[in-house]
Design goal:
Elements (H helix, E strand, L loop, with lengths): L2 H23 L8 H14 L6 H45 L1
């Protein structure tokens, strides 16, 4: 097997890592932003003469996390398929060389 086959597999792994990092970085709400979002939620409720409740706030966070998880899962699935395909290519090349 030549170096380009190994390089393809290595590049697929790197792409997987980058895809997962990008998905996590692009999550709608980062942990550092939650406090600001909570303050905004409380102010929104106060401005509308409504009661801010922990349950309502957690429902909003849960919904957002669920959306972010779906985005991350999609990227992870895509990265898995790319890596798996590259690994299969490397295996096939190895079998050719050893048979």
């Amino acid at each position: 097997m030549n170096n380009s086959d190994y390089n393809k597999a290595e590049n697929a792994v790197d792409q997987t890592e980058n895809s997962l990092k990008n998905a996590a970085d692009n999550a709608k709400w980062k942990i550092s932003e939650l406090a600001d979002k909570a303050k905004d939620y409380i102010n929104e409720k106060r401005d509308n003469d409504q009661e801010a409740t922990q349950e309502d706030w957690l429902d909003r966070v849960k919904s957002n996390v669920s959306d972010a998880w779906e985005d991350i899962k999609d990227k992870a699935d895509e990265a898995w398929e790319k890596t798996k395909d590259a690994a299969e290519d490397v295996k096939a090349e190895w079998r050719k060389k050893t048979n």
